[in-house]
Write a structure and sequence with these properties.
The protein is mostly helical. It has 13 helices and no strands. Belongs to the binding-protein-dependent transport system permease family. FecCD subfamily.
């Protein structure tokens, strides 16, 4: 049984990794100035001309890598929250964590004109504040997820109202920039953006690893977990804070991209089977989904480039309706 589970897990990860490699390859070679595989390999090793070097290293590669990194972070955040709450609807955007991060970042952007790394700190503070409010609102029964989901929906609507008020009261140019940011976009990604997100993701990796190891034990119940030496409350706190950190840093540089954190863990679990939480598979699935969605946003409509949040929102809405229909309220 265990050998079969391990073989399936390996096959799923290999398949997802292959899909990710294919999407990345398409992303760096496709565009108004297409690159052949020969041009790509030559440019990667410093042999391309000036135009090829600019297109690859300044336009496409940062955008594609940001899609991979942000998608992986959101996939992990969604898997952690769904594992802690045992609810397939638990995700940073539906719980209002993305909304809290967005309100804090948009407030600094519109009121004080702050940009750059300070937005990441503000987004983290906003997401953390929402997470603390949710934990208090859920009370002792928060582990079932029902009260926390309802509280998260209410906070999400409140955050949307606050952001709308801020944009209405601000200058038109700043409001347009904030609207593009709130929609979620990977355009204009700089290498330092990748560096910051990568450093935060690397710093969160030990907590992600511990959470992935302990969460299956917490599914056995608080008393059984305590008997095995695992504190349910400690695991919940580590997982929630890690999810908030990953969500906040992605919101700061790519905006609150919706539904990736909801869809990726559900797809990964269905592929893995056997009740797996699938944090690693969720990361790769999120990277594939977001990078692929960005390709659709760039090339689906000729001569029109959409923010990737438009595509993920449209696809995620359909996925959410399917998820609600398939669960039939059993886990909500």
């Amino acid at each position: 049984m265990r050998a079969r589970v391990r073989r399936r897990r390996s096959a799923v990860l290999i398949g997802l990794s292959a899909a990710l490699a294919a999407v990345v390859l398409i992303g760096v070679t496709t565009g108004d100035y297409p690159l052949t595989l020969e041009q790509l390999s030559r440019t990667l090793f410093g042999g391309g001309d000036r135009l090829e070097t600019y297109v690859l290293f300044q336009v496409r590669l940062p955008r594609v890598l940001m899609g991979v990194l942000v998608g992986a972070c959101l996939g992990v955040a969604g898997a952690l929250l769904q594992g802690v709450l045992r609810n397939p609807l638990a995700s940073p955007d539906l719980l209002g964590i993305s909304g809290g991060s967005s309100v804090a970042a948009v407030f600094l952007l519109l009121v004080f004109g702050v940009t750059g790394p300070l937005l990441a700190a503000a987004a983290f503070a906003g997401g953390l504040a929402v997470a603390l409010v949710l934990l208090l609102a859920a009370g002792r029964r928060g582990e079932a997820g029902f009260r926390l989901i309802l509280a998260g929906i209410g906070i999400s609507f409140l955050c949307v109202a606050i952001m709308n008020y801020l944009m209405v009261r601000s200058q038109v140019e700043l409001a347009q920039a904030a609207l593009l940011w709130v929609t979620g976009s990977l355009a204009s990604t700089a290498w330092w953006h990748l560096l910051v997100v990568g450093v935060v993701a690397a710093a969160a990796l030990p907590a992600v690893t511990l959470s992935a190891r302990w969460l299956p034990i917490t599914q056995l119940g608080a008393s059984t977990s305590a008997g095995l030496g695992v504190s349910t409350s400690r695991v919940r706190m580590i997982a929630v804070l890690t999810a908030v950190l990953l969500t906040a840093v992605t919101c700061a540089f790519a905006g609150p991209i919706s539904f990736i954190a909801l869809c990726a863990p559900a797809i990964a679990r269905s592929l893995l089977g056997h009740g797996a939480i699938g944090v690693g598979a969720s990361a790769v699935t999120g990277a594939v989904l977001l990078t692929g969605a960005d390709l659709v946003a760039q090339f689906a409509i000729p001569e029109t480039s959409l923010p990737v949040g438009v595509v993920t929102g449209a696809v995620g809405a359909v996925f959410l309706l399917w998820l609600l229909a398939s669960t039939k309220g059993r886990q909500l």
